[in-house]
Every structure is written in structure tokens, then in C-alpha cells.
Write a structure and sequence with these properties.
Order of helices and strands: HHHHHH
Distance between the termini: 63 Å
Helix content: 55-70%
Strand content: under 5%
Largest sheet: none
Number of strands: 0
Oligomer: single chain
């Protein structure tokens, strides 16, 4: 039904409207974490816009492109960001907004754009394989920076699950070895 298409375009407009409040203070592209969060909302807006345009018959391949912007772009980038921030914090590691973070986010966005454009253009498996490889590279960089904290000693001076009062289940997880102390 056409109403579905118009709702998709309205959802895209709502996502873009949310970004109006983000233009306060220092420019976002100078800070890695907010810039990646900003890109996540852009992926949501593009995904909803592509879905809406496809429902209205304006964009061939738009349904697949929209789904990829929402899944690979918005959800994938959201998971990437949360794991890069909270994944390090919950194992006692300091925040690491080094160059790897921006590069990993850019590679993930490139994979999303490549896959979405492949859906619109109707190209075959080389584009799919290239997008999948880029996606794996981005999450490989994340694993390289976050995973060692799961088996190394904490660097914040705390032992075990020092924050178990915040997350009660974490005391059971830490008793199995995650985030253990140096002793």
C-alpha cells in the first residue's frame, strides 16, 4: 500500500530531524564516538527512505538497499560502537578512540554503501563478497582492540567484577574468568 511508503519517508524525515540537536558545540567529525553515532542515524534515515521510495515504486532494489542500510549500517554500526565503548569499560580498560575506531567505522560504512548500491544496481556475488569482506575487516579490528580485555588482567586496579552491583549477572560471568584480576 502507498501508505507504507509514505510512512517510510516520514520515518526517514524523523531520523534526520533528530540530528538537528547534534550540531551543538565542537564539530562532530572532530570526535570519533559522536561522529559514528551520527553516521548510525544517517544509515537509519537512508534505510527508511529507501524502503519508502521502493514501496512507492520510485526505487528499484530499494527494499534490499533499505534493509541493508538498517541492518549493516544502523544496527551493525550501533553494535560496533557499543562494543568499542562498553566492551572495553566493562573489562576495566580505558576508552580507546584511537585511529582504529574511525577506520573501522569507515570500513563498515563502506561495506554498507557497497552492498546497498549493489542491491539498487542489481550486481552479483563479487559485490556481495566484497561487502562481506569489508564487514569482517571492520569487526576484526574491533576484536583486535576489545577481545584481549576478556582474558587479560584489569588495568583499572579493580578485581573481578567490581561493578557487579550495577549488573548482578556479571558476578556469575566474572566468576568464570572474564575480567579477572592480575592475582
Amino acid at each position: 500500500q502507498p501508505v507504507t511508503g509514505w510512512l517510510g519517508l516520514a520515518a526517514a524525515a524523523a531520523m534526520l530531524n533528530l540530528l538537528n540537536d547534534w550540531h551543538v558545540g565542537r564539530p562532530l567529525w572532530q570526535k570519533r564516538f559522536p561522529a559514528l553515532l551520527y553516521a548510525m542515524y544517517w544509515c537509519m534515515a537512508l534505510g527508511y527512505a529507501a524502503l519508502g521510495a521502493a514501496q512507492l515504486g520510485w526505487l528499484s532494489g530499494g527494499m534490499s538497499a533499505g534493509r541493508h542500510f538498517l541492518t549493516m549500517g544502523a544496527i551493525g554500526l550501533g553494535i560496533f560502537i557499543v562494543l568499542s565503548i562498553a566492551g572495553r569499560a566493562h573489562v576495566g580498560r580505558p576508552s580507546d578512540p584511537g585511529p582504529w575506531l574511525g577506520l573501522g567505522g569507515a570500513v563498515l560504512l563502506l561495506a554498507t554503501l557497497w552492498r546497498a548500491m549493489g542491491a539498487v544496481q542489481g550486481v552479483g556475488w563479487p559485490v556481495l563478497a566484497g561487502a562481506a569482506l569489508l564487514w569482517c575487516v571492520a569487526f576484526g579490528m574491533l576484536a583486535w582492540r576489545v577481545a584481549p580485555g576478556l582474558w587479560l588482567a584489569r588495568t583499572d586496579g579493580k578485581t573481578g567484577c567490581a561493578d557487579s552491583n550495577v549488573f548482578p549477572i556479571s558476578s556469575r560471568v566474572c566468576s568464570r574468568g572474564f575480567g579477572r584480576s592480575a592475582s
